[in-house]
Amino acid sequence: xxxxxxxxxxxxxxxxxxxxxxxxxxxxxxxxxxxxxxxxxxxxxxxxxxxxxxxxxxxxxxxxxxxxxxxxxxxxxxxxxxxxxxxxxxxxxxxxxxxxxxxxxxxxxxxxxxxxxxxxxxxxxxxxxxxxxxxxxxxxxxxxxxxxxxxxxxxxxxxxxxxxxxxxxxxxxxxxxxxxxxxxxxxxxxxxxxxxxxxxxxxx
Length: 204
What we know:
This protein is mainly α. The chain has one domain (about 15-190). The protein has helices spanning about 1-10, 15-35, 45-65, 70-90, 100, 105-125, 130-150, 155-190. The protein is globular. The relative contact order is 0.13.
């Protein structure tokens, strides 16, 4: 029975493509709003909950099941981030009443952005031993949280808002490529699309 459970556990597929696809979609929609191509956050909430949140949570749980603490932590942490963002947008859009909308303090969200910047800095160092694509995704996320935090605190709002938007676009494009590469490499059982060797190789 124990051997059967181990065999079932090892049969879980790599969830990276699912998690990266969720990240790619939500950051693309979010940057379209920041760059002025779309308006408001009401429509964005659905993508944040289902793709940014749920898709990454599923991927993270599978990664933890596969004993991948790095991938599991990343997907779950960022999945919860997008769920929290959706909750914040729901509040500012008045879904929880006018009092909640009027008393919403964006500086508290800015504090959370700083906390996520610290987490992402650690993850960026860890990504040095993954792939170049994943490393650059985390590096772009660093710039995203820096831009979001500064914007939330009112520091050079227009410039930092644009920095966040461009960072989200870069994250989206790299994540789309990473998701596609993971799917095709796994499907063809070969390196169909390169992800790049790690910058920092482990000792042999």
